[in-house]
Description:
- This protein has eight helices and 15 strands.
- It is α+β, with helices and mostly antiparallel strands.
- The strands form two sheets. Strands 7, 8, 9, 10, 11, 12, 13, 14 and 15 form a nine-stranded mixed sheet that branches.
- Helix 5 links the parallel strand 7 and strand 8.
- The protein binds pyridoxal-5'-phosphate.
Amino acid sequence: MSRTVYVNGEYLPEEDATISIFDRGFLMADGVYEVTSVLGGKLIDFDGHAARLARSLAELDMAQPITYEDLLAVHRELVVRNQIDNGLVYLQVTRGNPGDRDFVFPDPTETPGTVVLFTQSKPDLIDSPVAAAGIEVISVPDLRWHRRDIKTVQLLYPSMGKMAAKAAGAGDAWFVEDGQVTEGTSNNAYIVRNGKIVTRELSNDILHGITRAAVLRYAAEAQMEVEERAFTIAEAQSADEAFVTSATTFVTAVISIDGAQIGDGKPGPVARRLREIYIDESLKAAL
Ligand code: PLP
């Protein structure tokens, strides 16, 4: 069934939606994005994603092309029109179509940003077989640019990381820089040692995950100890547990790193509990 998508103010069947070949998102990867999950037809952590979008745009000197209220309305409309029960809404904003290729940014008063949204249905988002089993990860060098706090559409290197993981028979890759784990290709990375949750502190080195913020808040509310600092692959391999967080995988256990089994090779109690708390609490707060 053809989806209804949103492009610059219009709802269109996906096959009728078009973007100019001069769009800077296409030519320069000059764009930012957000992915908001949908559970039971409701938006999870929408306010966090909207706030991070505003920050990404500001960091890149891009104008905010759509208000918070309109953004929420479009998300909701697409969920309804596409009958999404569980799934996600993808949102991308680019610096638009200046009508030519040029490294210099166009004047935003003459070239409005391009706004695109579409949905993807994922019926087993909660009861995911991958989450039930946990994932194996490999480590790869972090060769991305140094503004990883901005959620840009420059995802070629993370894609290469996923391909390296696939070639190795693993589910994902963790990036390593200066001997320490930064994050996963599309998620934040954590270990658990003696009951304490350890994850890298926020900086330009990692994306400020919206799921990360919520999970750390819920962990603190549940009296779980959290330490924000970097860790090495060796420390992770000898940890009691490891896990990742992202908008569409919530909390997912990591059961091996570069072939070394973590704990007993099954999702551990801390990861399982945090996944449960995150899903329960997020559903309560869903819009
Ligand atoms: N880190 C990276 C590099 C990501 O691409 C993502 C999500 O796409 C995350 C972390 C997790 O962020 P969030 O929890 O906001 O989905």
